[in-house]
Inverse folding.
């Protein structure tokens, strides 16, 4: 069974793929920045009755949030003064938290903390 790092079981569906593969599909997307452990316990049986002699365990990690790109790009010089900008992340983000963490500044003034209003958010995965 798949388990999160804190030991919680991950609900989902197990199904065979062909005669030798087993596929797990979680009920909900895995959360980011999380370690998952998978164990197939000793005693799991094959169709012919043979048993797995010992536990087989492995783990994997889901990605941490990462900024993949921005538009306009770093160093752009042809940006209009009424332009918007876009940040692309590798996973869904909480728009209100990102807006609170954003800082805008130029070389002649201290950073500003804008009053941001998130009107809508589209994610790109």
């Amino acid at each position: 069974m798949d388990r999160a790092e804190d030991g919680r079981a991950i609900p989902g569906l197990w199904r065979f793929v062909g005669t030798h593969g087993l596929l797990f599909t979680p009920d909900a997307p895995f959360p980011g920045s999380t370690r998952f452990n998978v164990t197939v316990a000793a005693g799991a049986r094959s169709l012919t009755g043979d048993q797995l002699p010992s536990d087989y365990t492995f783990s994997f990690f889901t990605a941490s949030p990462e900024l993949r790109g921005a538009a306009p790009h770093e160093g752009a010089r042809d940006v209009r003064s009424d332009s918007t900008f876009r940040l692309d992340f590798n996973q869904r983000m909480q728009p209100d938290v990102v807006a609170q963490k954003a800082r805008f500044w130029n070389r002649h003034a201290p950073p500003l903390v804008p009053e941001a209003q998130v009107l809508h958010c589209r994610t790109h995965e």
